[in-house]
Design brief:
With 178 residues, the chain is mainly alpha-helical. The protein has 7 helices and 4 strands; from the N terminus they run E-E-E-H-H-H-H-E-H-H-H. The chain has a two-stranded antiparallel sheet. A two-stranded antiparallel sheet has the order 2-3. Helix 1 packs antiparallel against helix 4 and helix 6 packs across helix 7.
C-alpha cells in the first residue's frame, strides 16, 4: 500500500477549457489565482507584520536579533512552518493539474524555482516573482521552437545571471567583511 509508486490524485474539480482556442483551463485559473493570493499573503507577512520584521532581522544577523529580544528559535520554527505550508499548497495545486502524486513531482519545479530566486535576487519576493516570469516565458518560447531544450533554458539563464550579476535582478550587492 505504501511506497514510492505514483498515486492517482483525486479529480476534485472537473477540468474544462475557459478559452477554447487557448489551452487555459479552470484549473490553470485556480492555480494562478491562489498563487497570487499566497504571494500576497507571504509578502504581507514578511513586510508588514512584527513576526516578518523579526524574520528579516534573524536572516540578517541572528546574534544581534537575539540581543534585541527576538526569540530566534521561535522565528526559525515559524519560517520553516510557513515554508512547509506553502510547499504543501503548491503540491496540492500541482496534483490538481497533473492528476497524480509521486515523491519526485516537485523536483524539477524546485530546481526551476531556485533558478528563479537566484535570477530575481535571493531574499527578494518581488524579484523571485519577476525571475519566475522570465524563466517561464523563456521556457515557453524555447518550447515553441524545440521542446528538447525547454528544461535546459532555466539552467542556461541561471549560469548567465551568476556570471553577469550574481546578486540577481533585484538583489542587493553586499560587501562581506572578512
Amino acid at each position: 500500500m505504501f511506497g514510492p509508486n505514483p498515486r492517482v490524485f483525486p479529480d476534485i474539480i472537473p477540468s474544462y477549457n475557459l478559452i477554447p482556442s487557448i489551452s487555459f483551463s479552470n484549473i490553470d485559473a485556480l492555480i494562478l489565482g491562489l498563487s497570487l493570493v499566497f504571494m500576497g499573503v507571504l509578502f504581507w507577512i514578511v513586510q508588514k507584520t512584527k513576526l516578518g520584521r523579526a524574520m528579516r532581522a534573524v536572516s540578517e544577523n541572528p546574534t544581534v536579533a537575539s540581543l534585541m529580544g527576538i526569540n530566534v528559535n521561535k522565528v526559525i520554527s515559524f519560517t520553516f512552518i510557513l515554508g512547509s505550508v506553502l510547499a504543501a499548497c503548491a503540491g496540492i495545486l500541482v496534483g490538481l493539474k497533473n492528476h497524480q502524486a509521486d515523491p519526485l513531482m516537485g523536483m524539477q519545479a524546485g530546481i526551476k524555482a531556485f533558478a528563479a530566486a537566484v535570477l530575481g535576487g535571493i531574499g527578494s519576493i518581488p524579484g523571485a516573482v519577476i525571475g519566475g516570469l522570465i524563466i517561464g516565458i523563456s521556457e515557453a518560447l524555447v518550447k515553441s521552437i524545440d521542446s528538447a531544450y525547454a528544461d535546459a533554458i532555466s539552467f542556461i539563464i541561471l549560469v548567465i545571471i551568476l556570471l553577469v550579476k550574481p546578486s540577481g535582478i533585484m538583489g542587493k550587492h553586499q560587501i562581506e567583511k572578512v
